Amino acid sequence: MPKIALTAQWAAAEVGRRARARRELLDLSQEDASYLAGVSTTWWSAFERGMRTRAELPQLLGAAHALGMDSGELLKGLLPDTVREPAQVHQTRPRPRR
Fold first, then answer.
1. Is 7 left (phi over 0), alpha (psi -120 to 50) or beta?
2. With a threshold of 0.70, does the pTM exceed it?
């Protein structure tokens, strides 16, 4: 899967879409998934709708566990628009003054 530069809103929406698709595939309700993940149903609903742009690691790990998947599967290919490719380090980083 190619890496995609994105905004936090787009990433949250994509992760939420992936979570909902997996939950529906497993025939779980939001209530069941949130129980398994250790989060509230309100949190889970917002998560699936892409409203959790600052979800914390324990919540993401719990969500992945509830869905029977590795957390990397939820995040695979997603990069914030602020990251650079390794080859760009010497091209764009400001040089220290001597």
1. beta
2. yes
As given in the structure block, the two tokens for residue 2 are 């190619």
52 — phi, psi (to 5°)? -100, 75
C-alpha to C-alpha distance for 78 and 92, rounded to whole angstroms = 22
18-46 burial, b for 16+ CB within 10 Å, e for fewer?
bbbebbeeeebebeebbebbebeeebbbb
Give the amino acid at 59.
Q
Cα(56)–Cα(75) distance, integer angstroms:
13
2 three-class SS = coil
Looking at 32-36, 61-65, 89-93, which range is the least confident one? 89-93
User: 47: which 2 tokens?
Assistant: 């998560």
- Specify whether the CB–CB gap between 76 and 1 falls below 8 A: yes
